[in-house]
Design a protein that fits this description.
With 541 residues, the protein is of the alpha+beta class. The chain has four domains: 3-113, OB fold (Dihydrolipoamide Acetyltransferase, E2P) (Beta Barrel); 120-215, OB fold (Dihydrolipoamide Acetyltransferase, E2P) (Beta Barrel); 259-285, no CATH class; 342-540, 2-Layer Sandwich (Chloramphenicol Acetyltransferase). Helix content is 29%, strand content 26%. The chain has 14 helices and 26 strands. The protein has helices at residues 84-87, 95-108, 119-122, 206-209, 215-238, 252-261, 279-283, 293-304, 325-340, 353-365, 372-386, 430-445, 451-454, 519-534, and strands at residues 3-6, 16-22, 29-30, 35-40, 45-49, 54-59, 66-68, 72-77, 125-128, 138-144, 151-152, 157-162, 167-171, 176-181, 188-190, 194-199, 343-351, 392-394, 399-401, 407-409, 411-413, 416-418, 421-422, 459-463, 482-496, 499-513. The protein has a six-stranded mixed β-sheet. Strands 1-8-6-3 form a four-stranded antiparallel β-sheet, with no helix packed on it. The protein has a four-stranded antiparallel β-sheet with strand order 5-4-2-7, with no helix packed on it. A hairpin with a 4-residue loop joins strand 12 and strand 13. Helix 11 crosses helix 12 and helix 11 (372-386) crosses helix 14.
Amino acid sequence: MAEVVKMPKMSDTMTEGVIAKWHKKVGDKVNSGDLLAEVETDKATMDFESYQDGTLLYIGPKEGEAVPVDAVIAVLGEEGEDFQALLSGGDAAPAKEEKSEAKAEETAAPADSTPTVTAEDLGVTVITMPLLSDTMKEGVIAQWNFKVGDTIKSDDAIADVETDKATMEVTAYADGTLLYVGLEAGEAAKVNDIIAIVGPAGTDVTPLLNQPASTPKAEAKEEKAPEASTTSAPAATASTSSNDDSRVKASPLARKIAKEKGINLNEVKGSADGGRIVKKDVENFVPAAKSESAPAQESAKSETKTISLPTFVGEEKYTESNVSQMRKTIARRLGESLFTAPHFYLTVSIDMDNAIAARTQINEVAPVKVSFNDMVIKAVAVALKQHPAVNSSWQGDKIRFNQHTNIGVAMAVEDGLLVPVVRFADGKTLSHISAEVKDFAGKAKSKKLTPADWEGSTFTVSNLGMFGIDEFTSIINSPDGAILSVGAIQQIPVVKNGAVVPGNVMKLTLGCDHRVVDGATGAQFLQTLKGLLEAPIRLLA
């Protein structure tokens, strides 16, 4: 009897999986233990083995498609067995009935129904934009490593894709010729959009690309066409003037700059392909001569002026750059956090005299130099064990109290911010924490962090003290329930034993999600943290 194969839950945070590659096709015999497919989870690409024997009757998702956990992805059974009832939640019917029903369906099918063409029909493999991180919505092609017509192998990295977290490689997953490339380098595509097609040389993939689903796009283009025709009428009328430059081939930016400077594009020579005028052509343009009317107008104006002022000519300039995938995600996630979680902040001052002395002694014997930030991370992890309410997250209809302490460490990179995670920080030594943080910093700068490095934090530490910032507030790194902002150590006068003496003070600001952390709870956590940092010997116990 036929049985369904469902998308397995391969990690604790997995909600869906992407079929990276099918190793079997419909009609193949499958034995228990055979490699059925490769599934890309939120953390890695893993092999998915069959737990049943039988013939592969049905494959649901195509390669590159995302499927929720427990959704049906395939059906195994006897050859010719009816499995349609299983897809709708019923039981499978005998094979003979399937054949008779299939004939009836063929008879009843309209004569004018449009057949759909699949990749299997053409013998090609469709490569879609993969889901490379849990927050990824789209990817930008950083560069293509092959061009149309090149021969590639299944393990070749055909392109580098810039995600919201890093630049990662996209593998072909098939041998053959690169038949189609869907977008240029620098262009973005949504997850699961077709980016390339691989197959036998000379295969015509036009029928596959011109599926009925593309009709709305064609209609949208047709709707825009009348607009172009209607706007061309005034342009044609205006072009009768000898000064009109609307039909000169120029980039939008070059045309804008020319308009601001009062330059007629008819007088500018273009340096791009086909004589097209670009920005540098306009900026480097020097008028041959001024019109005779200009001096007359200037002299008329000077006669009416009673005060002579020096003329200062300035030029408005600006640059624009496309928003990176990382910056898009930062904007989206921090916006969601700030406007969803009710934030409140608590600040405490820490006497760092003992911490400074302890760090000096530790670094005399430690295999890795320990920073004040490493001491804060360790102290935070220890304090969270005593205050589990701060080590929590809002889950909508419940609150999750984490019993483990995974500390996210905010790191500034060229395109924005990454938060790799020091896992189980409460049980690690200061040297261990320091080594991990240094390793993460190197990977972050070179964009070598993997999803496993930045997922799973329960609390986040953000330190701007090294930039001389005395005190600041941070937006919570969702789904964490709190975040700690660490300021610089300041040398200021303090009162000790009734006398004013020099002191070293560092301010810590705790940002809390009021849905899970109350004011008193946050204050008690800060008091514990203050005690640990002012008596750092307790961190070594």
